[in-house]
């Protein structure tokens, strides 16, 4: 089972709302103060940082040379997703990502060669959003068992995630670079109720802001399921209630609650903040789900953002910050990576050597260019 490194979002709603306006891009936020930086340190959730003990395991890693080489699995994928992918990367730049992070389409030689398969992100077109997180270690099971490398299935549906194609792809691109969901940090979740929780106070029964029953596929699991979740949990029949409490159980059952529930600390690099309050969550992150993601319809009146109506019920909600009065609020659709997302990227890729990509890209044919790039990355992939 390698499902823990995939992020799926499958929404069963059928009628896309009309998309009548696009939100204006905001200018990048300034650098956080030293104090804010210290706080940011505690709240990222990324793949394991290079050089840490946890990263010595067979794990996904950061992409060599801060560059994702991608391939489209077929013509449909290319025609449906190519422009959106470029715009999605531009969203990252507009959020403050520097241009030493690049995405480049592989040549037809690279994209059809088994030898280079592990070194590219293979993108298919489908009706869901699903992305391998990070760059597979050359010894990882994904490589040895399946002979594959990183892959993604993306969609241009407008009735899913942030109800907008480019921000959705930008979120998926965050996964491809190595970021996990902001809201799945176990230190934000109540341990009293959630099997995989870590002892936070932001999400869970204390705040009553985890509305599992609003998930679009909730009704499908009324009878529970007989599954083997792994991780020391027995093969047995699990009830829906148990699926709403454990990431592992929900995952094994293919229940979308797995996109929300806290991941176990050993499954990702997770900051060791055990008393995370709502101030520690990056509510502006493009890696946090808006409240409606994956939810049943029925919100009345619907939420409206720049002319786009969202009548999906709330799954997770934002509690009032400590010391403040107020009600739970909908988590907004963050269509631009936040300064925290950028800081997380810079921390994750801080030790990744960057070659002079400008030169590499200018010289020679596309084919040569990629040959050179791959020679370089083969040498350097084990030292990231
Ligand atoms: C979950 O989905 C995977 C992949 O589609 C499938 O192989 C597996 O049998 C499913 N598990 C259950 C319990 O339905
Ligand atoms: Zn996601």
UniProtKB/TrEMBL annotation:
Keywords from the UniProt entry: Signal
Signal peptide positions (record): 1-20
Protein name: Uncharacterized protein
Native source organism of the sequence: Aspergillus lucknowensis
